[in-house]
Amino acid sequence: MNSRQRIVFYVILGLIVIGFLGSAFTNPKSFIIPLLVFGLVFYLYKFPPRRYRNNHNYKNVAKIQKKQQRKKRRKHKFKVIDGNKSKNDKDDKDDEEESYPFH
């Protein structure tokens, strides 16, 4: 940043601080409640309750997920159905333009 941008940045930052302090002194209730809510959310994010904590390692969770995926997969047996065409019919069609029976 050059010096002009720094000056503008600090002026705007100072005005923001003055605005927050002014609203905190004039109407502290409207300033404290959002601050408490933000603090509570931050605290719960950093220290979640025990019932929501997972004690599993990432590797153990990955192993469990792989096992579950294996169980979900089903092996399908595919059956090849032989067609009615002979090999000679196929060679004759290559010489001519392909004509489809439905057109």
UniProtKB/TrEMBL annotation:
Q: Which domain of life is it from?
A: Bacteria
Q: Where is the composition biased (Basic and acidic residues)?
A: 79-91
Q: Where is the composition biased (Basic residues)?
A: 64-78
| Keyword hit for Thylakoid | no
**Ranges annotated as spanning the membrane:** 7-25, 31-47
Q: Which region ranges are annotated with the description Disordered?
A: 58-103
**Keyword vocabulary terms for this entry:** Membrane, Transmembrane, Transmembrane helix
> In which residue ranges is the amino acid composition biased (Acidic residues)?
92-103
Its name, as the record gives it, is DUF3951 domain-containing protein
UniProt lineage: Bacteria, Bacillati, Bacillota, Bacilli, Bacillales
